[in-house]
Amino acid sequence: xxxxxxxxxxxxxxxxxxxxxxxxxxxxxxxxxxxxxxxxxxxxxxxxxxxxxxxxxxxxxxxxxxxxxxxxxxxxxxxxxxxxxxxxxxxxxxxxxxxxxxxxxxxxxxxxxxxxxxxxxxxxxxxxxxxxxxxxxxxxxxxxxxxxxxxxxxxxxxxxxxxxxxxxxxxxxxxxxxxxxxxxxxxxxxxxxxxxxxxxxxxxxxxxxxxxxxxxxxxxxxxxxxxxxxxxxxxxxxxxxxxxxxxxxxxxxxxxxxxxxxxxxxxxxx
Length: 270
Description:
Blueprint: H1 7-38, E1 54-59, H2 68-77, E2 88-96, E3 109-112, E4 131-140, H3 148-152, E5 158-160, E6 166-168, H4 178-182, E7 189-190, E8 197-198, H5 204-207, H6 214-218, E9 224-228, H7 237-244, E10 247-248, E11 260-263
Parallel strand pairs: 1-11
Antiparallel strand pairs: 1-9, 2-3, 2-4, 5-6, 7-8, 10-11
C-alpha cells in the first residue's frame, strides 16, 4: 500500500521546506561573516589569529578550591552575579571508601559546587574516616576542536577561531539555546540580560593583547597553565607542563578533541 499524503500535509511540508531554504542564505552569510571578521574583531591592530594556538592546562593536584578564578571571571567578563551563571567554576569530588565486604576499590562519589566555588567550600558532611580521597577540579569551556555547539548553531553565531578558541558573536545569536543543549560539558548558559548564549572565551580580549586569562592570573597555586603552542617562550611553562605530566581530556570517547588538558585527574571526574 502506498503511503498517503493529504493536500494540507503536502502544503505544510512545502512551506516548511521553503522556510528552511529561505533561511540558508542568511545562515551561510552570517557564518561566513563571523568566521572571516569576528575572529579578528576587538583585537589589537596587527593581531593575526593564524599565528597563534592557545591552550589551557589544569593541574588538579594544585587546585585548593579557593574560588578566586570564578570570582575573577565574573568581574572580568561581566557574568551575571547569580549562582546559576558561570564561565568557569570549581567542583569538589569526594570519593568514599568502599563499604565493608564490597570487592570494589573505591566507593561512591559525591560532587558539589556551592556557588561555583566562589566562596570556597564548607566542611563536608561525610565523616573523615569514610573518605578515600577528596580533590577540586576547575571547569570551563573545553574549547573543542570538533565543537558540538558550533555544529548545532543554526546561524553560525558560535564558531572556531583560527587560534583555537570557540567564540559566540552576540550580534548573530538568536537565543535558540541549541548550543547549550549540544554542549556535553555543561559549559554554556543563556545570559538573562542579553538573551544570548555565553561561555568561557579564554578572556579573548586579554590574550590577544599578550595578557593571561583572568582565572590564570589570579590563581595563587598556578593550577592553571596557559600559553601559545605556536610561540613558546624560554622555559615555557606550558611546554614544560606537557613535557613532565601525563595529560588527559574530559569525555574523550565523545571525539570532541578538547583543547583544555588535565593532569593528575581521576577517572571519576566527569
